[in-house]
Amino acid sequence: MLARSLRSPRLLAAPLRSQFVAAAPKPLSLRTVTTDAASASVGAVPSDAEQPFTVTLPNEVFEAYELDAPSRQLEVTKSQLRQMYFHMTSIRRMEMAADSLYKQKKIRGFCHLSTGQEAIATGIEHAITKEDAVITAYRCHGFAYLRGSTVKAVIAELLGRKDGIAYGKGGSMHMFCKGFYGGNGIVGAQVPVGAGIAFAMKYEDKPNTCFALYGDGAANQGQVFEAYNMAKLWDVPVVFACENNKYGMGTASNRASALTEYYKRGQYIPGLKVNGMDVLAVKQAAAFAKEYAVSGKGPLVMEFVTYRYGGHSMSDPGTTYRTRDEVVNMRSTQDPIQGLRKRILEWGVLTEDELKQVDKEARQLVDKEVVEAEESPVPDTNFETLFKDIYVPGSEPRWTRGRTAEETHYY
Ligand SMILES: Cc1ncc(C[n+]2csc(CCOP(=O)(O)OP(=O)(O)O)c2C)c(N)n1
Ligand SMILES: [Mg+2]
Are 188 and 243 part of one and the same domain? Predict the structure, then answer.
């Protein structure tokens, strides 16, 4: 039966690949959730930097699936806005420093930058606490920094130095700190792990959540759906958060995904699409998601609509599968840092000079910590060092294999 069907001329006909190859690249589909971060309104702004005031986000920032969308009104303070601006600017500076060090061949191996996507790490961090958890893929430097690390520890890790966040032994894709579970190179693998972290929180009766971030490419992985299933069955307080930056390596999302509405992918799990270029929308949505998950309603699927300015990794110029115009257009019209800057000025939160001062602080911080990272020594070159820092002290197995039997390390 099977053999006959395999012989059938229809199944052996030329695959459809030629059609895909010949097809002209589709323009980015129009979205109802825009990525314009500027237009929002505000009432009276108090002079006290710590006094909250109300901001109303634009109409299009959220789109909900099987869910009442969060309120578009949120309370912020001047100092929070300043801090968010500082965080996004520092991440961008840090990524630019990594780019430059890579081009000088001081950083080797894999390196994926998040330039353009800074509002997601920043908005989430400003909505959760250090008792909550975050896990993501390899585009992880900004998350590692905001979760509690330093620019120095991130850059030193990239340089393979002792003061790195993983003592110089992990590199770009393997950054961890308290409340941050990496830094994962296997596409999609962090999603079930994130569900497990959130399951542990529920099991231990902790009022916390885990944001499990993944890309639009990773969203097609089978294990993502397995994690959705178990999380819904057990009402696990996990937030599945897709960073839809429109490309998975060199493939546009609409060529790889039969359904590009990633927030509806959970089917039986409610979803929320968010303008991922608007840091206030991200903050508001992340706070809503945490509240939703922790209240016992179970998981939520989020989609942050965003854009990656650079190539997929350092070896990709990022211009062969998309036009330069598209990148220039996104940078000049939807940039998350410029969007917040414009609001801050319009609302009279800070003056132009005060914003320049924040820019300077971010630049000085990154410059200083990059110098310190470069001064950090390389890890000791012995086997002891190689097998250290893999397990939580006290939880080591009896031995770990080396390349050969002679290199087996006994703890
Ligand atoms: C299981 C697995 N398959 C393939 C790869 C190679 N790979 C690395 S990144 C990537 C694309 C992922 O794209 P996306 O999830 O959209 O994340 P982005 O890079 O856009 O942040 C692929 C296919 C991998 N690392 N792991
Ligand atoms: Mg992607």
Answer: yes
